[in-house]
Design a protein that fits this description.
mainly alpha; 7 helices; Arc Repressor Mutant, subunit A; 3 strands; homodimer; DNA-binding
Chain lengths: 163, 163
DNA sequence: CCTCACCGGTTCAATTTCGAACCATCCTAC
DNA sequence: GTAGGATGGTTCGAAATTGAACCGGTGAGG
């Protein structure tokens, strides 16, 4: 087996270490956020993300599909979680007038309140674990990387039609 | 509301963008890996990770707890997935002689074969989506960041006893 | 030796996620 | 118009994950 062969089948040790550590760090990060959110605010990370995305949206409302895309889940998972949030009184749905197939998801007042209650706690954790470690230079570098990765993901998801 | 107050409750827009994009990118990355693994190799990402960690381990075996820690899941999830892999003939368990409570998880020959079959496909995806975008400088920078984050996670998980 | 706290694993119920199948609506081309 | 494909959502069943409860085994202190 040649060196080139090796490289194409497996990863060079240093590169492999980066990838492994990346997986580990992201999972542990998610885990600690999840735990904090559950313990202190009785809400899951996904549910929190829904609140955030709604609050960020124009008129605090989003079509179901758009929401699913923004929280990066299957549409069915979005349906499920929105129903759950509706039960808690934190979100509501109503029919879209322009397109009878579509449904709007809206943040309720209670939802916004809950978010404002929850955000500081969770954001301080994010700062502590993730953001405070970035100096200006690193933040810029990371932003660039994230943008590149994002573009890669787009390309792979909808493969380029090379005419 | 003062600027400082704002900063402590919410995130400055640029920083917020980094965090949001980080979440999005990591989720989409996981999703595409998962899909590729399922479609082409009928195995989940978690199961693949188990195979990888076992193959990396001394003697291709690991205690159940150690395995759970390395794939970053609850012990019960490790038990479940190992059972699943055992059903597929890709892993086996046996009692630990030194400690009657413990169980070893071992990679079988079939397991190693399956891994060698699967790895190139998935690693090429990881390269394409993630690794190839890193030049030397960025790789070094990312490694440093990952190490810092990892340390942060350690600290928060087992809070420092400040005497 | 006991006792008792801790540790390694498993079991269990509850929650969440996914994709496939499905329904209804929309829209374009004829 | 209307047929047929695409689009927005929901439903459903299967699989995975979690934490709590639990069971033995271990090992340190009395």
């Amino acid at each position: 087996m040649s060196a080139g062969d090796f490289e194409s089948r497996w990863l060079a040790p240093e590169v492999n270490a980066v990838w492994t550590q990346f997986l580990t760090v992201t999972h542990r990060l998610e885990q600690q956020i999840e735990r904090r959110l559950q313990d202190y605010h009785g809400i899951s990370h996904t549910q929190y993300e829904v609140l955030v995305r709604l609050a960020d949206a124009d008129g605090a409302r989003l079509r179901m599909s758009e929401l699913a895309e923004r929280i990066v889940t299957a549409k069915s998972a979005a349906t499920y979680q929105v129903k759950r949030l509706a039960d808690m009184g934190l979100a509501e749905t109503f029919k879209c007038e322009e397109d009878n197939r579509a449904t709007w998801v809206v943040l309720t007042d209670a939802g916004r309140e809950r978010l404002e209650e929850t955000a500081p706690c969770i954001l301080s954790l994010v700062r502590e674990l993730f953001l405070d470690s970035l100096d200006c230079h690193q933040a810029a570098e990371l932003t660039e990387l994230l943008t590149t990765w994002s573009a890669n993901l787009d390309d792979t998801e909808r493969p380029v039609k090379t005419q």
